[in-house]
């Protein structure tokens, strides 16, 4: 990908993240992202299949900016805390939670799977546990489930904070 294409892709992701900081994911349309990033819808679709693909790429982009030499679980918890203003808007206002869970599960699965496959000699005890397991794919799934639990914890606590502050 050339510089101009990379700049356009980054412009779309940045506009999406700016929108996500203010609005719920399910209320953000491709048209809104296109308008905010000053590109046409057809340009948007040259870079991303759909809004879910954009979300996946945006999260991958922000994950790649995090500190990769931390232990996997520390890296993930730090990521959630740093990007919580954006991630909290992933909780659907109207759409089915299962749609969102499918997206997040895929993102987490890919993140863990890539780290295990790209760094089999990583000294992170969690990575070593997955690499040396009789069934590494199953261990990756278990870790991904734990990470979803962390996300759920944040979602539930954010909801509780809102309810407490409103009463």
Would you summarize the structure shown here?
By secondary structure, the chain is mostly helical. 75% of the residues lie in helices and 0% in strands. The longest helix has 31 residues, at 136-166.
Please characterize this protein's 3D structure.
The chain has helices at residues 3-22, 30-37, 41-47, 51-64, 72-82, 84-87, 97-118, 125-132, 136-166. The chain is globular, with a radius of gyration of 17 Å. The longest helix is centred in the last third of the chain and has 31 residues, at 136-166. With 167 residues, the protein is an all-alpha fold.
Notable characteristics:
167 residues, mainly alpha, 9 helices, 0% strand, globular
Question: Which helices and strands occur, and which strands form pairs?
Answer:
Layout: H1 3-22, H2 30-37, H3 41-47, H4 51-64, H5 72-82, H6 84-87, H7 97-118, H8 125-132, H9 136-166
Helix pairs in contact: 1-2, 1-4, 4-7, 5-9, 7-8, 7-9, 8-9
Q: What is the mean pLDDT?
A: 80
Radius of gyration: 17 Å
Distance between the termini: 52 Å
Give start-end ranges of low-pLDDT stretches.
none
Q: Bin the strand percentage.
A: under 5%
Give the helix level as a range of percent: over 70%
Q: Helix tally? A: 9
Please count the beta strands (DSSP E, at least 2 residues each). Answer: 0
Q: Which sheet architecture does the biggest sheet show? A: none
